Amino acid sequence: RHLNIAKEGFTQTSLGLLANQRKRQLLIGLLKSLRTIKTLQRTDVRLSEMLEEEDYPGAIQLCLECQKAASTFKHYSCISELNSKLQDTLEQIEEQLDVALSKICKNFDINHYTKVQQAYRLLGKTQTAMDQLHMHFTQAIHNTVFQVVLGYVELCAGNTDTKFQKLQYKDLCTHITSDSYIPCLADLCKALWEVMLSYYRTMQWHENHEQDEAAVVSSVSDGNNAIGTEENSFDRNYVKKKLEHGLSRIWQDVQLKVKTYLLGTDLSNFKYDDFIFVLDVISRLMQVGEEFCGSKSEVLQESIRKQSVNYFKTYHRTRLEELRMFLENETWELCPVKSSFSILQLHEFKFMEQSRSPSVSPSKQPASAISSTVTLFEQYCNGGNPFEIQADSKDDETEDVLASNGYESDEQEKSAYQEYDSDSDVPEELKRDYVDEQTGDAPIKSVSRETLRSRKRSDYNLNKVNAPILTNTTLNVIRLVGKYMQMMNILKPIAFDVIHFMSQLFDYYLYAVYTFFGRNDTFESTGLGLSSSRLRTTLNRIQESLIDLEGSADSSGTLTAAEERKEKVPSPHLSHLVVLTSGNSLYGLAERVVATESLVFLAEQFEFLQPHLDAVMPAAKKPFLQQFYSQTVSTASELRKPVYWIVAAKAIDYEQMLLLMANVKWDVKEIMSQHNVYVDALLKEFEEFNRRLNDVSKRVRIPLPVSNILWEHCIRLANRTLVEG
């Protein structure tokens, strides 16, 4: 009994107590575990919340902690499932990270990118991130380009046909219509610019970040984390190299895409301004490339050169035809311009002033002139787009064309010398009249102009300082030269072709003036050496290289001839309105003066432009330019001799003198005190000639060299007649 009492009261109770205590402790432990498990189960919800908020580093941190905790409890069967689930979640986070990374390519956001990078660092996958990023960029370029072009193609096609989406980019480019070509090109460049800007900013982020990190590392460089930093610096170098290598790869991609687009359409029938616009966009793109990775953009240059040569041939061909038409309809009337007229006032030459004066706002300057200190990337880093500029600069140009239209303040000049700076499509009549701005009505042409002019000059020799003599056609040629020079400025590689075509314009004008006014076989044979040998060789050269004489007489060898004739122009014919045979107008002296002097004026303009042309000419081709100047441009003034010779020869009746001389009785016994009749006759003719010259000079200013040549011819011919008599 005692034993029993002891057993119950002592052993069982205390042991029971201990046993219960132990049980309780176990349960408390279990409760803790269960609580942890409960939170682990709940983390799922938290994780997806974090991902919603795009807090990738936080989510990954949480995930990794959960994994640690789970590994301590892996003896519970519910936990082992959780573990694999967490692994899935991690992978899912990585996928989302990848998507987030790809967003960087379109528009770079610093906070977003910093988060993504931190997340990758937590995962220990900085290098993978870099490789992925480059893939995304390449993909982004491909997709944006495709989407832009596809958008335009579908817009133009109008139907909602999906066949275009299956096309290759290259074939898609050929579907672009010519009116949507330019907006599409601009959008293409804008889109590509955004991708490149994102890349640029990504690089900047890494550079700044590296500096910060370096600072941190240096402050905590204890022995224990040496290994960690080593790994870190390896990562950093890898990233740096990868980014630098990526630059040229991305630019190469951009170039190829744009090249495909450029060559996809035949530009040869584009309007001139449109073509210049395309060139402008591309040259700006090349500048971007230069700043992006120092590339010379050979791919782009080659493709734009191909297109330009192609375009320019067609363009020049139509221009020559046009010039011929102009020459054939030209009545060789004066074209009224200010006496201070300079070709730089024409808006085709505005670009020359821009490239000289730094004061022009950058938007109007050609890309090359923007000061090199601010790169495009710095300029547009926070928004804006370098490819949007052009649209504004177009408007600026049109304003200053007409600004100078009106009258000069100088009183005596307030006359018909109005500078008109319009395009050649204004009807001739409008150009010739001018509207009196004070009263607002157009004065009757003949009176106003005649009286104004005659009041201004009493004698044709006195007024040497007057407006340049030029015709509508001359102005057109000058405008064309301006346009050609713009082409050259943007397109250094085809400068030679352009200059060659430019020389053809001058050649053709010179040839036309000669054939219209200077060709006269009866006088050529008198062997007076009117045209110098240099002039003759020049004319022959022009005739062989540029004039298509086949038009009248068809020759054999048709195929090669046809090929060559493509390059040539038929010889022009003088307009029917120009009468060169009437004695009253001194055999078209006014028209002759306008023709030769406008040619001389044109030659002077070419002289003025020589340094500009010389600057863009490739060294190997410089002799061509020098030869053109020494042999062709400088012969312009020599045309005066043969042109005016005809006037002098016809205006004075030398035959009558010969008759008078023959009628004189020469066998006189004593010398008469009075001179012979024919002398008076000759003087009378000269006076008459002088009077007519005065009449003509009321219509057209006769420059001094011209009147000198005229009188020289008269005196020579009179001397010949005397000798003959």
UniProtKB/TrEMBL annotation:
A GO CC term attached to the entry: EARP complex
- Domain (Vacuolar protein sorting-associated protein 54 N-terminal) spans 1-205
* Domain Syndetin C-terminal, residue spans: 586-725
Q: Name one GO molecular function term.
A: SNARE binding
Give the region (Disordered) as residue ranges. 387-427
Coiled coil among the record's keywords?
yes
Taxonomy, superkingdom: Eukaryota
Annotated GO biological processes are:
endocytic recycling; protein transport; retrograde transport, endosome to Golgi
Q: Report the coiled-coil segments.
A: 76-103
Instruction: List UniProt keywords, sorted A-Z.
Output: Coiled coil, Protein transport, Transport
Look up keyword Transport and say if it applies. yes
The name under which this protein is listed is: VPS50 protein
Q: What organism is recorded for this protein?
A: Callaeas wilsoni (North Island kokako)
